[in-house]
Amino acid sequence: MGLLNATWRIHASGVDDLEMIERAMHWLTGDCCEVMWERGKSFHGSPQHVAIIRTGKRKVAMDWLRRLGVSVLSEINEGGIGNRIDDEKTVHVRISLPELCKGNVSLIDSGSRSSSVKGTFKIESYPGDDPVIVASRVISRLCSES
Fold first, then answer.
1. What pLDDT digit, counting tens, does each position of 75-127 carry?
2. Side-chain half-sphere of 131: how many Cα atoms within 13 Å?
3. Which fold has domain 3-145?
4. Does the predicted TM-score (pTM) go above 0.85?
């Protein structure tokens, strides 16, 4: 078992360096996908850009999760992965956008107001399977492979 799909979402302000963010996302995704930006306005009316990068390919989704690195994956597993899984059997991860732009991957707290990249990973889980156990096994397997 593994992952069915994955998505990365970035919200950037009108003054953020989109090229730098794109380079970081290409590194994080293994340069497999094009980053498409949508221009809009934030709730308060200021310009903002939103990028959504998706894959429905299982192998690519696993590669994206693997690229977080052993230390981040271990932190996810040890921090209680059940807190990151929703009713749709999706694991939610938020990483620091400024750190990613520097070439580092680090988790941030859900209450943090720092710029972040939101990742969602759909678990391949079937009726009778506990998604927390399945996700924990996937992450443990990725950690042991590295």
1. 999 888 999 999 999 999 999 999 999 999 999 977 778 889 999 999 999 99
2. 21
3. 50s Ribosomal Protein L5; Chain: A, (3.30.1440)
4. yes
